[in-house]
Amino acid sequence: MLHPMSFALWLAWAAPAGAHAAPPAATATIFAPQAIPGAADDGAAAFTPDGDTVYFMRGTGDGSTLVLSHRRDGRWSTPMPAPFSGRWRDLDPAMAPDGSYLLFASNRPATPGGPALDGLHAGKRYVGHGMNLWRVDWQGDHWSAPVRLPDTINRCSLVGAPSIAADGSLYFLGCDARRGDFTLLHSAYRGGRYETPRAVALGDAGATLRDPAIAPDGSFIVVSIRHAAQQPYRLAIAFRTRDGWSAPQDLGDTVNGGKENMGAQLGPGNTLYFYSDRPATGAQANAAWNNGHDHIWQVSLAPWLDAHAARAH
Q1: 6 pLDDT higher than 90
Q2: Which of 25, 218, 240, 267 is the most buried (most CB within 10 A)?
Q3: Cα–Cα nearest to 299, from 273, 261, 263
């Protein structure tokens, strides 16, 4: 059975990066526990630039839908289905840094009236379990109808986990025929068009990378990484260098936990949001949250960003 929510776990057949203890101030906490029920299976949170609206994916039986919640007077509203979601298997929302559009993965038909997209991998067909990237644009007070991204991006039937830089460049998981596997890709956006995606060289050749979260200015990226199939994915951060990227730095055990740490997205104030089945501790430790489901977690990246800035000087 394939996990009903996560595109990244579709690709999880591929040891954490070198561990670095996370600063005490960087302990991850559950996002909006008063508004989002612990019984739900949630993840991959994408925020509007003002931080007052969040879109995230929610497991629904053997599928997933995108839901949204608004913050009013410091409290989050009960999540409700996004207006462009609810019929197909939709997941992995990613907001443009300026809030003008949102990307997401979906198995919806590539052409109107067609069947749900099948997933093809290693000679096997997974009926209705394909994924391509789609876009909705904010039009003043509502979202446009979803539009499929061009074949430059959707080059196969399993494409997902988008993350958008301020210049429109796209980081995502997709097909790379040269490697014979799914890989982390980058497509520059110039003249209103996506350029041919290129594989992102990050970490050692044996690392499997999933779920990128690119900084708006492209100065750093957070990914889920592992080196062996029997070990969990762990979140790590890498910084832009003159020659590409630094070695990924593990975010430590106060952030990583459980069997999966996936779906990284950046919110306002360099807050990292991700989903994990890790058990809650402290004041959040109760049966409502420690039920094996995925929940949305949050942590400030300030300790790592400050430490990197200090080293640069």
Answers
A1: no
A2: 267
A3: 273
